[in-house]
Every structure is written in structure tokens, then in C-alpha cells.
Amino acid sequence: MTQRFDVAVIGGGIVGLATAYRLLESRPNLRLVLLEKEGDVALHQSGHNSGVVHAGLYYPAGSRKARMCREGKAALEAFCDDHGIPLERCGKLVVATTRDEVAGLDALTARAEANGVPGLERVGPGRIAEIEPHVEGVAGLYSPTTGIVDFGRVARAYADEVRARGGVILLRWRVDSIQRWTGGPGDEFVLRGRADDIRARAVIACAGLWSDRVAAMTGDAGTQRIVPFRGDYMVLRPGARHLVRALVYPVNDPRFPFLGIHLTRRVDGEVWAGPNAVPAFAREGYRLGDVAPRELASTVGYRGFLRMAARYWRSGAAEMWRDVSRPAFTEAVRRYVPELRDEDLLPGPSGVRAQSVRLDGSMVDDFSIGGSGRIIHVRNAPSPAATASLAIGRELAEMAVKRFELA
Predict the structure, then answer these.
(1) What is the pTM of this model?
(2) Per the domain annotation, does 382 fall within a domain?
(3) pLDDT above 70: percentage of residues in the chain
(4) For 221-253, b where at least 16 C-beta lie within 10 A, e where not — what string?
(5) Same structural domain for residues 177 and 131?
(6) Which end of the chain has fewer CB atoms at under 10 Å, N or C?
(7) pLDDT at 181
């Protein structure tokens, strides 16, 4: 029997779950279904990130990232407190390792201040040694309110809230097509899977690595495409974890959307180093050997990818070298912690980032939300989407209530 709902949310990552939660929070009687193709929620980007609760240092003032990171962080902290989820405000130290990076640190400080990040402190070598005794740098910016959390656990708590409020979460339900249906009591969308179909008055797509493909199903592909980037981490062996107290980050290059290698203490006590950022050969290619020929051909055949590769080839070559050269990776980490030795770094996990790329080869840096009529698409939601998830979910829910005329 075909099931009918008011709203279908596509994607069981942290953004889709937060959106479903926010919708049911504001509209308790809503008939809502969330469709996730995997056997559990948060198995991709939401469960493969470093777990940092960002304070908003790096994002352009006035951007969606800056605004939603602040709002989302406060909402996330309250949610974790209410649900007994450990969230540690361990602090982040951004380090300039050379005098050449101080100008970039100045620009980052001004950006963080414009974003209203609380408790910021510009520090010199002496204060750096107090905060992170084994880190060396000529100057730094300290953000004491940056934190860490297990975002997989957060996402599962969102899922519990969705179910508790009457929402339906269907796992192992992959959307193969979306069509408009006008033969029933009103306009509906038919979402077809392998075994059955779902009908809904409205659709919110939070499909992450597959967001462009889902948009294409609705006839709204646009010109942007998702290019998957794999990020590999190393982990510090237990005997070396004392070398990093909390979070040690680089001064970012604003021309490039990836931060570069950094060191991250996690809530379980592990310390991760990385990630690099190299094109993945499959949208869910977590290992170097993971290759999906059709997906790879689609990526390489996209003109935006070729133009991006031409624009960023120097940075890309350095990232790829660190991906295959253990000494190069170690040397990049030792810029911040000179005491680290090669044997202190062990193979760690990997993640895949869904990066939207424009036809001209530029990378979409901000959150991107589009769609028309009774469909909303989240086209680009990279970091700090997990931190900002409840803010993104609130905005999508408010947009849906207004656009879809939800009672």
C-alpha cells in the first residue's frame, strides 16, 4: 500500500535529521517521513568528521556559515546538555608558524571578531606554550569556546526525537526517482524506491554526497555538481597523545576552502592529525582503492572539475603528495608539534566531503539552499554544517512551513 505524507525529507545525515526534528517541533501533527538509503543514520559525512564544534572563526562575516554557526552552536550545546551528550569546550589554538603567516592571522582575527566569536585572545609564543606546551609558533589566536562532540551520537539523538514526535524514518530506502503526480486528491510527489513508493505533498532534499543527483531527479539540476574529496587522518599513538591538549589549527588560505592539516583531540581521548583533501574516485570512496568508474567518469567529464583542477593544481598536488608520502604528512604535522616522530602517527579513519563546484571551476564555499515550488534542495552543506545543523534545520523548517503552507 502506498504511504502518503505531508513532507518527505531525503537523507538521514545530521542536516536531514535536524530538519525533520525542527519541522515536527513546530508542527506536531505533521505527517513526516525521512528516507535514508543506508541501514542506519549518519553513516557518511555526519559520522566521518573530526567532531569539532566550531565557534565561527573562519567564515566570511554575513555569510550563512557565520550566522548559522553561531546560532547552531548555541542550540547544539543546549541540546547536548538536555540529552546528556558529552560536549567539551576544550578550546582551539590557531597557530602562525612563521612571520609570513601573521598577516593571515590578523585577517582571521578581524573576521572572527566581526562574527562575534566570544573570548578571543591573540597570543604570543609564551602564551602558546601555556595553552599547548608542545606546540611551537610565532603567534596565535585562541578561541576558548570551541568544543568537541560525537556528532554521530548527536545525529542518533535527533533521530530519536523525530520518532518520538511521530515522524517515520525508513532505512534502506533509496530514492530512485521523483515524479509529480496530479491524479490524486491534490498535487503530490511520487518518490520511488526499489520495492515501493512514497507520496508526499512536499520534499526537502538533504542528500549530501548525492544532492546534485537528487536535484536532477526533480528537473532542477542546475549547473553546479558535487565533487567528492577524500580526507585521510592519522591518529597519534596513545603514548604521544599528551603532545596535544585540545585543537591546534593552521592559519587558513582564504583562496582555498580546505583548512589544511590540523590536530584534533576527540571526546574519546584520541588525537587525529589531518585531513588532507584529495579528489575521491567514488562518492563514497573512503579508501584510495575505492573506485566507481561511472561516478569517476562523471566527475572528470564535468567542465567545472577540469577548471577547478587547473585553478588549484599547486595546492592539489601538495595535498596528493601528502596523501601518498608518509614523511611529507609527518613533516606537515611537525610544523606545529616538532616533538612528533614518524612512529607516533598511525593510520586513522577517512571521510568524504561533498563539495559543490560551479561550472567556472570555483568551489561553493557557503551553505547553498535552493529549489522552487514544493521542493527544497540543500545543495552544499560542508563544515560547519554539523555544528550549525539545528540552525540549518530551523531555517529549512521555517521555509517549508511558509512555502508549503503547512498547517
Answers:
(1) 0.95
(2) yes
(3) 98
(4) ebebbbbbbbbbbbbbeeebeebbbbbbbbbbe
(5) no
(6) N
(7) 81
Q: Which residues pair with 180 in a beta bridge?
A: 189
Average pLDDT on 181-197 reads 81
Q: Name the DSSP letter for residue 340.
A: -
Cα separations in angstroms, 174 against 1, 92, 190, 192, 196: 18, 39, 13, 8, 10
Q: Which of 340, 322, 349 is nearest to 258 (CA)?
A: 322
CATH code of residue 33: 3.50.50.60
Q: What is the rounded distance in angstroms from the CA atom of residue 267 to the CA atom of residue 166?
A: 31
CA distances for 159 relative to 170, 263, 329, 378, angstroms: 11, 30, 37, 19
Domain contains 247: yes
Cβ–Cβ under 8 Å, residues 147 and 89: yes
Cell of 224: 553546479
Q: Are residues 274 and 328 in the same domain?
A: yes
Residues 284 and 318 in one domain: yes
Same domain, 108 and 243: yes
Q: Which three cell numbers stand for residue 62?
A: 554575513
Q: Which domain holds residue 177?
A: 3-46+152-224+366-404
| Cα–Cα distance for residue pair 246/90, rounded to 1 Å | 6
| 187 pLDDT more than 60 | yes
Domain for residue 320, yes or no? yes
CATH number at residue 260: 3.30.9.10
Q: What are phi and psi of 249, to 5 degrees?
A: -120, 155
Number of domains, the chain: 2
Contact status, residue 236 vs residue 271, Cβ threshold 8 Å: yes
* Alpha-carbon distances, residue 10 vs 22, 172, 207 (angstroms): 15, 12, 6
Quick one: pLDDT at residue 153? 98
Residues 309 and 238 in one domain: yes
Distance of CA 364 to the CA centre of its chain: 13
Residue 236 sits in the same domain as residue 373: no
Cis peptide leading into 125, omega within 30 of 0? no
Written as nine digits, the cell of 98 is 612563521
